[in-house]
Amino acid sequence: MNELVISKIRLTPWLSQRIRFSIFLVALCSVLRAGSITTSVTCGLYGQFRPTTGTSFCSEGTPPLPPPSLAPDPPFATATASGSLTLQSVATDWISLTLFDSMQATDATGYLVSIGQLPPGVIGAQSFASASSAAHFDFYTDGPVRQGILQVQFTTFNWSSTTDTSRVGARVSITGANFPVTFSCGTFTCDGLGPNAPPNPIALGTSFSLDGRGGASGALGGSGRGQASIGVDFQFRILDSDGITPVLIHTGVPEPRIALLFVVGLGFLAASQAVRRLSA
Cα-atom radius of gyration of the chain, to the nearest Å? Predict the structure, then answer.
């Protein structure tokens, strides 16, 4: 009678440590693959040799007095950049990407004249600031490859530009899934569909990416103060091929790929342990 012998691998501290490290790497790769939001700001005063930079907020100089003050504005610059992504709890929810960028700067000519610090021959004392935000996220849907419907709502908020030399803009796009769709706004107009945009066809059972950019920058060319800002709220969800059933949207690497990566990692660790035993 044949006897079945099952050999068990003993988890040594060395192997146990590497398994834990492998699990950490798989989780980390999944998070990084899902996407991120980055922001950047710059503030510079008149006469400042090197502007200051930051991640989401910067402020230099003395803020102007609020209205109805008529006092000349001192050198001042500030900028703010932010972004957020709201995911689905259930398939009927909208995924929402929100970006907001704003700046404010002053021309301190009058103030510097009043305190006798405007150099001879200088007719402007501009401060400047800029803010920018960028987002990239990867998504996928389950099931076989088929055609679905992408629903989009695209709106802007706090959109203004009162500086003499400013740039304001936002752009959001979805790529992959056999089709691209892009919405953008500039200093004066928006290109593409606005709020409650009609549905678009999209391939299901595959992956796609969401990319967004926003920015506001400027320097005031006349005496006084100015600001520029733009916010964008981009929402989307997906319906199945029947045009009725909502589809749950996942972030990051599809689960089969994560499982395969984990199995390969464990196989590599087991092989390494066997080599160590043979060489011992």
Answer: 27
Its sign, for the CA torsion 71, 72, 77, 79, is positive
Cα 234 from Cα 97, distance rounded (Å): 5
Going by the DSSP 8-state scheme, the letter that residue 237 receives in this structure is: E
Mind listing the pLDDT tens digit of every residue in the chain (280 residues)? 444 443 444 555 655 565 555 554 444 444 445 799 999 999 999 888 789 999 999 999 988 888 787 888 899 999 999 999 999 999 999 999 999 999 999 888 889 989 998 888 888 888 899 999 999 999 999 999 999 998 888 778 888 877 666 778 888 888 886 666 777 776 655 655 555 566 788 899 999 999 999 998 887 656 677 888 989 888 899 999 998 999 999 998 665 544 444 445 555 555 555 545 555 5
Task: Give, in order, the Cα–Cα distances in Å from 230 to each of 131, 155, 160, 245.
Answer: 10, 11, 7, 34
- Report the relative pairing of strands 76-86 and 57-61 from DSSP bridges: antiparallel
Rounded to whole angstroms, the Cα distance separating 26 from 268 reads 14
Neighbouring CB atoms inside 10 A of 182's CB total 12
Count CA within 13 A, CB hemisphere, residue 23: 5
Rounded to two decimals, the pTM is: 0.76
Strand partners, 35: 137
Task: Say how far apart CA 78 and CA 69 lie, in whole Å.
Answer: 20
Please state the φ and ψ torsions of residue 219, each to the nearest 5 degrees.
-140, 135
